[in-house]
Write a structure and sequence with these properties.
The protein is α+β, with helices and mostly antiparallel strands and 604 residues long. The chain contains 19 helices and twelve strands. A five-stranded mixed beta barrel has the order 4-5-12-7-6. A two-stranded antiparallel ribbon has the order 1-2. Strands 8-9 form a two-stranded antiparallel sheet.
Length: 604
C-alpha cells in the first residue's frame, strides 16, 4: 500500500479557494462556524482515518463480510467507524442543532467523508446510509419516530439503510411488491423481500433502522402507489428495551470489490410479525426517498472520486520508486551503459499518471460543486437564488454520480497499467482499487439510468432552463479565463464545445418533441459521456483560473509548483480528453439507428 492515500493540499485548495467555503459560511445557518475551526475538524478526520481506517483497508478485503448463523459477520473496524465516528459527530454533523447536529455545510461534510472514503472505502458507507435514513425520518416522519430512532442513529449506536430493490424488480421500482397491511395498532404489517441492501446487518449493531418502500394494500399501480416505512430490525418493547421485529437476514452477497462493506438479502414478515411505521403520507414514498437518493448519488460520486485519488497516489508513489528501462538518446537509441530510469521519466507513464490526476481531481471538484449548490439551495434567503441552485443541482446530479464512477474506473485501470505485472498481483493495492471502484457505476442507478435521467428529464427541465443556467456558469468561467493570455486558447475551446452541445441537442430534441422517446434516449449514454467531458473541461478551466490568479497575486498558501501543476493538468485534459466530444457528437448526430429493437433479429 502507498504511504499516503490522498492529497490534503488539493482537497483544501478546491474546498477553500476554488469553491470558496467561506462564502457558504456567510449564510445565517452556518454563522457559528469559521474557517479555522472547520480546518481543524478536517485535520482531525484525517488523523482518525490514518489511525482507524487506512491500516485496515487491505485486511477487510482479504477477510470479507460474510453470512453466519443468521447474521452478517463484519470486520471489527465497522464498530469503530460507527461508535467513534458517532462520538466525533461524523454522522450528525450536517443536521440541525435541534436534531442533535452541528449544522455543518454539506460542502464540509463532503470534504471530510471524502477523506474517509479515500482511506478505506469499505467503512464510510455504514455511517453514510445511517445518516441518510435518519435524514428522511427527520424531514418526513412524525415526532414519535424522530424521538424513538434518530438520536441513537446519529450517535452511531444504531445503523440505518434504504431498502428499495427487490429480486423480481431490480431498478424498476414501479414493480415492487413488498406489502404493507394496516392494523388498528398504529403500525402496518410488512411482508416482502429486499436485495442488495448495503450495510443491512452486522454482528455489532444493536439495531438497524430500515427505510422500506412498500405498497399499502389497494394502492395505485406503479410508482404512484409506493409508500415509505420505518422498519427496525428490533422494535421498542415499551419497557425501554428491544424485541425482534421479524426482519430476517436471508443471505449476503459475496462481491468482487468493497468486500468489507456488506450487502444483504433481507426478508420481512416471515412469521407475520414485522411492524412498520408509515413515514409522512401514503403513496409519497418515492418522492421522499428521492431526497435520500440524490444525497446517495453524490456520495457514490464522492466515493469513486476518492478511490480514484487513492489509486493515483499509489501509482504515483510506485512510478517514483521503480527503475526500469532507459530514456531514448538524441539518436533514437538507448545507451545500455547508463543507469536505469525511474518509470516516471517515460512519457507514456506520465500520460497515464496525468490521466489519473486529471480525472481524480476533477471528480473531487465536481462533488464539491454539487455540495455547494446543495448548501445554497437550502440556505439562501432569496427564493429565486434557491430555485436557480436547485435547477443547477438537478442538472449535474447524474453527472456527479456517473463521471467519477466511469472515468474513475478508467483512471484506476491506468494505475494498474503503470505497475505493469505487479498491478495484477494481490501484493500491490491497485488491483483492489480496480475491483472496489467497479460497483460505483451500478450503485444508486446504473450509468444507463443516470444517462436517461440526464437527457430525458434534466435537459428538458423547465423548457431547458437548467441546461441554460449551467451554460451560463460555464460562460462566466470562460470570461474569467479570457483575461489571461495563457488560458485564452482553452477558454475558446470550451466555448466551441458549448456551441457543439447546442448542435447535438438541436438534432436530438425534435425526436422527443415528436414523441419518439425511444429514439431520443437510445444514445443517452453517449450524451452523458459527451456532456461530462464538457463539464469537466469547465471545472479544469475554473481550477486553472484560480491557480493563475494565485500565481499572479503571489499567494504563497500553496507552492508555485502546485499552482503550475493545476494549469498543466488542465492542458492535458484539453489535449487528450476533451477532443473525444467530436467523435461522440458525430455518433449522436448520425441518422443511422442501430440499437432500437425492430422485427429484424441481430443477435444471431
Amino acid at each position: 500500500m502507498a504511504k499516503e492515500y490522498m492529497d490534503m493540499d488539493t482537497l483544501k485548495y478546491l474546498l477553500y479557494k476554488v469553491h470558496d467555503l467561506e462564502s457558504v459560511l456567510s449564510y445565517e445557518r452556518f454563522q457559528d462556524h469559521d474557517m479555522e475551526s472547520l480546518n481543524l475538524f478536517l485535520d482531525s478526520v484525517k488523523e482518525f482515518s490514518d489511525r482507524e481506517l487506512f491500516p485496515y483497508f487491505k485486511e477487510m478485503d482479504e477477510a470479507p463480510a460474510h453470512f453466519k448463523d443468521g447474521t452478517v459477520m463484519v470486520h471489527k473496524q465497522v464498530e469503530t467507524m460507527m461508535k467513534k465516528g458517532g462520538e466525533m459527530g461524523l454522522i450528525a454533523a450536517p443536521f440541525d442543532y435541534e436534531d442533535g447536529g452541528m449544522q455543518l455545510p454539506i460542502l464540509t461534510y463532503t470534504a471530510y467523508t471524502y477523506i474517509l472514503d479515500a482511506a478505506n472505502n469499505h467503512l464510510p458507507g455504514y455511517a453514510g446510509l445511517t445518516l441518510g435514513a435518519a435524514e428522511l425520518i427527520v424531514h418526513f416522519a412524525n415526532e414519535q419516530l424522530n424521538t424513538t430512532y434518530v438520536p441513537k442513529m446519529l450517535s452511531g449506536e444504531w445503523g440505518g439503510t434504504m431498502c428499495l430493490t427487490e429480486p423480481q424488480a431490480g431498478s424498476s421500482l414501479s414493480d415492487i411488491v413488498t406489502k404493507a397491511t394496516p392494523t388498528d395498532g398504529g403500525y402496518y404489517k410488512i411482508h416482502g423481500q429486499k436485495i442488495f441492501i448495503s450495510g443491512g446487518d452486522t454482528q455489532f449493531a444493536e439495531n438497524i433502522v430500515h427505510l422500506v418502500l412498500a405498497r399499502i394494500e389497494g394502492a395505485p399501480a406503479g410508482t404512484k402507489g409506493i409508500s415509505l416505512f420505518v422498519v427496525p430490525k428490533n422494535r421498542p418493547d415499551g419497557n425501554g428495551g428491544l424485541e425482534g421485529n421479524d426482519v430476517m437476514t436471508v443471505a449476503d452477497f459475496q462481491k468482487m470489490g468493497q468486500r468489507g462493506y456488506c450487502t444483504t438479502h433481507l426478508g420481512f414478515g416471515d412469521t407475520d410479525d414485522c411492524h412498520g411505521w408509515l413515514v409522512g403520507e401514503p403513496h409519497q414514498g418515492l418522492r421522499y426517498m428521492f431526497m435520500m437518493m440524490n444525497g446517495a448519488r453524490i456520495a457514490v460520486g464522492r466515493g469513486a472520486a476518492a478511490i480514484a485519488m487513492a489509486a493515483y497516489q499509489a501509482a504515483l508513489e510506485y512510478a517514483n520508486e521503480r527503475p526500469q528501462g532507459r530514456k531514448l538518446t538524441s539518436s533514437g537509441k538507448k545507451n545500455p551503459e547508463e543507469g536505469q530510469s525511474l518509470i516516471i521519466e517515460h512519457p507514456d507513464v506520465r500520460r497515464m499518471l496525468l490521466l489519473q490526476k486529471a480525472i481524480s481531481e476533477a471528480s473531487l471538484s465536481l462533488v464539491l460543486l454539487a455540495s455547494k449548490y446543495q448548501d445554497i439551495r437550502q440556505s439562501a434567503a432569496d427564493e429565486e437564488v434557491r430555485k436557480k441552485y436547485h435547477l443547477l443541482l438537478e442538472m449535474i446530479i447524474p453527472i456527479v454520480k456517473t463521471f467519477p464512477s466511469e472515468a474513475g474506473a478508467v483512471a484506476v485501470n491506468n494505475g494498474v497499467q503503470v505497475l505493469g505485472g505487479y498491478g495484477f498481483c494481490t501484493d500491490f493495492i491497485l488491483q483492489q482499487y480496480h475491483r472496489d471502484i467497479r460497483i460505483s457505476s451500478i450503485y444508486e442507478g446504473t450509468t444507463g439510468i443516470q444517462s436517461q435521467d440526464l437527457l430525458g428529464r434534466k435537459v428538458p427541465m423547465e423548457n431547458g432552463r437548467a441546461m441554460e443556467l449551467l451554460a451560463n456558469e460555464m460562460m462566466e468561467t470562460i470570461g474569467a479565463a479570457m483575461q489571461y493570455d495563457v488560458l485564452k486558447p482553452y477558454a475558446v475551446k470550451l466555448g466551441d464545445k458549448l456551441k457543439l452541445s447546442k448542435e447535438v441537442l438541436d438534432f436530438l430534441l425534435p425526436f422527443a418533441e415528436k414523441g419518439d422517446y425511444e429514439r431520443y434516449l437510445s444514445d443517452a449514454n453517449l450524451f452523458m459521456e459527451f456532456l461530462s467531458h464538457i463539464v469537466v473541461a469547465w471545472l479544469w478551466l475554473d481550477i486553472a483560473v484560480h491557480a493563475k490568479t494565485g500565481l499572479l497575486n503571489g499567494d504563497t498558501t500553496y507552492s508555485e509548483d502546485f499552482y503550475e501543476s493545476k494549469i498543466h493538468t488542465m492542458k492535458f485534459y484539453y489535449k487528450y480528453e476533451l477532443p473525444k466530444t467530436i467523435a461522440l457528437a458525430e455518433s449522436l448526430m448520425d441518422p443511422e439507428i442501430v440499437t432500437v429493437k425492430t422485427s429484424k433479429e441481430v443477435f444471431v
